[in-house]
Amino acid sequence: MSKMVRPALLLVAHGSRDDRFVVTAEQIRDAVAGELPGVAVELSYLDLNAPLVGDALATLGPRTDDVVVVPLLLGDGYHSRFDLPAILSAATRQRISLRTSQTPVVGDTSLVPALLSRLAEAGLRSNDGVLMCAVGSSDAGSDAQARRRAAELSERLKVPVEVVFATKPGEHDKELRSAVSRLEDARVDRIVLSPYFLSAGLLTERVIGKVLAYRPDSLVAAPIGEHRALIDAVTSNYRTALRGVSHSSGTSSQPGRDSLLHSF
């Protein structure tokens, strides 16, 4: 089999025990592939689902030695800065012809346009308040990035926006209840939950259930899914990597080395 000329694109999602996540990830892959004719676009996972990143790279081996790796992650935390570079480094040690370029996470690009669309679809009104639900991270920078997106969302909507982290609701849901209380203090008519997630899943359902218990009249917007803003973020990261100005992965961050795909 002859090698492909154009580098492949490997999407890396976190993985989930919820089947809906895989369905959404595959829809995202298909939408990206539709925007990049002639490029092999594959999907892989860091955990819980197949194929794992290393297995997907091995599958691409007969077709290309050059792979742009785009993390389908909203926060730039441990997974993108440590786990994924380590996996890519191990893969290149196993196959010395393999050249990878890891781009920034898709969440480095503002996906607020997707949140705006989903909120409009849910029926957001000008006197509502928004509770943006993000996953939460042990990395403070990742959580801070989510808060910046919430501030951006509030600026665009001109309504109050509070943030709650699904993995950190606080003891007896203290953080979640405080966020709801702040919106109530702002005298909003309704609370609209905005999931800052790629897909519906167990974490979002847990938060939704609690919010509806506190405020039964709340609305729930859909997650980001295969929204155009996300697809554009992925394809932009891919094209930037081809120009040799993307962030380097652990396999290409050694001192004195340019991006592995600079010549494409």
TrEMBL record:
The keyword Lyase applies. It comes from the Bacteria. InterPro entries: CbiX-like, Sirohydro_Cobaltochel/CbiX. Residues 244-264 are annotated as: Disordered. One of its GO terms (molecular function) is metal ion binding. The keyword Phosphoprotein does not apply. Residues 246-256 have a biased composition (Polar residues). Keywords: Lyase, Metal-binding. This is Putative ferrochelatase.
